Structure to design on (685 residues):
């Protein structure tokens, strides 16, 4: 089985789908000849032609509107927004148009669109590149939001997203693009949207997390096991809308303690929703309140203070200790 | 200041074929239409006028919901829709209901859409149109995708979308046209310039002398047409459609028209921003009066048949109302099921919750 980075797995997923279904179209800024600013689409235009993989003018609203129109005509668009912070230019299409089309037309039309955008901190990008904007997206009825944390999931989830007949926003963490390799099967396979993954089994406390914070949480889990013999279960949500409440509740029922770790600011992201769901359905399992480990409620930080701003294993360990010692 | 190009494009004159008295002033531009086709344009305009009158009164009686009046814009709407084929695709705004009806949307569904019933947007499979767009400009960027889809499928078809004069100030207005130009797509962008965006006059939207000249910014052809002259609108749009179907790319058409009524029936009062004199001036250009004179001069239209048509239209509207009234009520469960192709567990859970309440 080939070893791939997450970005290679993403490219591979798009290659598989472009080859499988001629209705799949891939477009955005610099995705064609250049192969994308992160090389996510490298080689795809050569392989599938300019009719299938093409560059657009520099206008996010135009790109997202193009995706909607092509969706109405039976195509299956993969629309790339170069960096997450630029989605505000296209929020009407992403949040107010595509996710409502099936509903507005009672199923006469739908939007089988995959929006892709890199996000995430730790790589010293300029302003409005790294923000965790999943909170805005997950509050949109009709839009699924997927955030993979590793190459295997990235490929399987992206194939699922492309095949989904409703719009999916696929967020790709920049720090995870090339940070490690993993065995990724060749050809097609899918990872279901809406299903979490228990990436580390434990009995004492549950961490619910997603994106790059999966790795931060795993590090914290290892350290605290060494330090205090505490066995931490780590759940990688993989999809934050819909949330796999079943997996979360089952784990909390077992461990009786939980924290949610996210890179997004405290008053954004998915943490509050996860805690609300645990409170609604699992309050009798709890020995302590469910806490959040997040970034502070400021605008995304300047590059020179990014490392201090982002949650790290130390902050996660503090969170775990708080619920343990409650 | 050194000027590279002038800010204003000179010499664009609204194209017209009939004068206000219904005389042909541009014989060589006359579209080649049979008497029956010429009469058909009048029938559609009469239908639209009667529908508008009935819709306004139904709205006042509480039997219709959201409604944006169209009286005065009949030549614009009928001329545009008649110039394309049933296979061509329309992306309408909330005011463009008549074009959708002409294009095949059953009248009772237009009534349901106005009332806020989901079935109103369930466009029949054989009708090539999207639901009316509320977000001004969104239809322009979506149009690029629709037209690109047509082009990629190698269909000899065109897509047509509408916007008002105020809408030309939106970013999506520019982006949609720019994409269509850059990809050379079969797209017709119509501006129905009725000279007001709610209360804001056209002059406060832009310093540009015409709205048509905005096409210069995206490198596509444009023209301005007298929107109170159905033959002129028909002629210009037909030519643009023909060019687009022959892969000659998109066009922008500014149709100069006027709405006799308010912006919508949701509380707008035009007397606060328009003068009686101005309204009178436009009423003299009434597209129905002008075209009726033309047809009568040709001896192919009579008062009697117009009266008969009006009665038939009223009856058609009554029948549609009955059908709309009888249409099954929506349920929360139905709404939840229409969110996704496959209803996920969290929505099933909510369905069960509302089912208990009988919703």
């Amino acid at each position: 089985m080939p070893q791939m980075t997450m970005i290679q797995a993403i490219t591979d997923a798009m290659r598989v789908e472009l080859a499988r279904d001629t209705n799949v179209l891939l477009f955005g800024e610099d995705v064609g000849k250049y192969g994308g600013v992160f090389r996510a689409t490298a080689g795809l235009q050569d392989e599938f032609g300019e009719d299938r993989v093409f560059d657009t003018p520099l206008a996010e609203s135009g790109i997202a509107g193009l995706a909607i129109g092509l969706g109405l005509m039976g195509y299956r668009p993969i629309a790339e927004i170069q960096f997450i912070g630029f989605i505000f230019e296209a929020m009407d299409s992403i949040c107010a148009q595509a996710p409502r089309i099936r509903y507005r037309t009672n199923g006469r039309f739908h939007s089988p669109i995959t929006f892709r955008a890199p996000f995430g901190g730790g790589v010293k990008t300029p302003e409005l590149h790294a923000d965790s904007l999943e909170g805005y997206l997950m509050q949109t009825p009709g839009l699924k939001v997927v955030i993979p944390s590793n190459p295997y999931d990235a490929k399987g989830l992206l194939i699922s997203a492309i095949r989904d007949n409703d719009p999916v926003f696929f967020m790709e963490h920049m720090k995870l693009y090339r940070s490690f390799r993993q065995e990724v099967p060749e050809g097609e396979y899918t990872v279901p949207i809406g299903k979490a993954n228990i990436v580390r089994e434990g009995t004492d406390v549950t961490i619910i997390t997603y994106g790059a914070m999966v790795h931060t949480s795993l590090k914290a889990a290892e350290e605290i096991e060494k330090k205090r013999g505490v066995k931490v279960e780590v759940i990688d949500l993989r999809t934050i809308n819909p949330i796999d409440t079943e997996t979360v509740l089952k784990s909390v029922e077992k461990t009786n303690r939980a924290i949610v770790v996210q890179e997004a600011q405290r008053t954004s992201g998915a943490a509050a929703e996860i805690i609300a769901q645990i409170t609604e359905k699992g309050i009798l399992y709890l020995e302590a309140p469910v806490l959040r480990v997040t970034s502070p409620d400021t605008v995304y930080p300047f590059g020179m203070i990014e490392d201090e701003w982002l949650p790290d294993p130390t902050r996660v360990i503090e969170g775990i200790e708080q619920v343990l010692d409650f | 200041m050194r000027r590279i190009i002038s800010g204003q494009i000179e010499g664009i004159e609204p194209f017209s074929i009939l004068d206000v008295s219904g005389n042909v002033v541009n014989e060589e531009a006359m579209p080649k239409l049979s008497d029956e086709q010429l009469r058909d344009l009048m029938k559609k305009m009469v239908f639209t006028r009667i529908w508008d009158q009935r819709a306004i009164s139904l709205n006042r009686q509480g039997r219709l919901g959201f409604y944006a009046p169209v009286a005065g814009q009949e030549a614009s709407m009928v001329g545009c829709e008649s110039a394309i084929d049933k296979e061509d695709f329309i992306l309408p705004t909330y005011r463009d209901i008549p074009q959708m009806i002409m294009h095949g949307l059953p009248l009772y569904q237009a009534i349901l859409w106005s009332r806020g019933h989901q079935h109103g947007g369930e466009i029949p499979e054989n009708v090539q149109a999207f639901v009316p767009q509320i977000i001004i400009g969104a239809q322009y960027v979506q149009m690029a995708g629709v037209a690109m889809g047509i082009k990629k499928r190698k269909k000899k078809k065109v897509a047509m979308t509408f916007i008002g004069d105020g809408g030309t100030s939106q970013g999506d207005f520019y982006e949609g046209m720019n994409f269509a130009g850059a990809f050379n797509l079969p797209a017709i962008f119509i501006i129905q310039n009725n000279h007001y965006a709610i209360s804001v006059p056209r002059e406060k939207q832009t310093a540009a002398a015409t709205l048509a000249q905005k096409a210069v910014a995206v490198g596509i052809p444009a023209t301005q047409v007298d929107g109170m002259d159905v033959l002129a609108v028909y002629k210009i749009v037909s030519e643009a459609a023909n060019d687009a179907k022959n892969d000659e790319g998109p066009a922008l058409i500014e149709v100069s028209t006027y709405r006799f009524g308010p912006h919508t029936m949701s509380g707008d009062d035009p007397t606060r921003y328009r003068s009686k004199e101005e309204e009178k001036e436009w009423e003299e250009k009434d597209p129905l009066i002008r075209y009726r004179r033309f047809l009568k001069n040709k001896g192919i239209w009579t008062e009697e048949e117009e009266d008969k048509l009006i009665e038939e239209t009223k009856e058609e509207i009554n029948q549609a109302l009955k059908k709309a009234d009888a249409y099954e009520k929506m349920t929360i469960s139905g709404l939840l099921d229409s969110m996704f192709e496959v209803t996920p567990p969290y929505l099933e859970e909510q369905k069960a919750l509302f089912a208990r309440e009988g919703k």
About this structure: The longest strand of chain A covers residues 258-265. The mean pLDDT of chain A is 98.
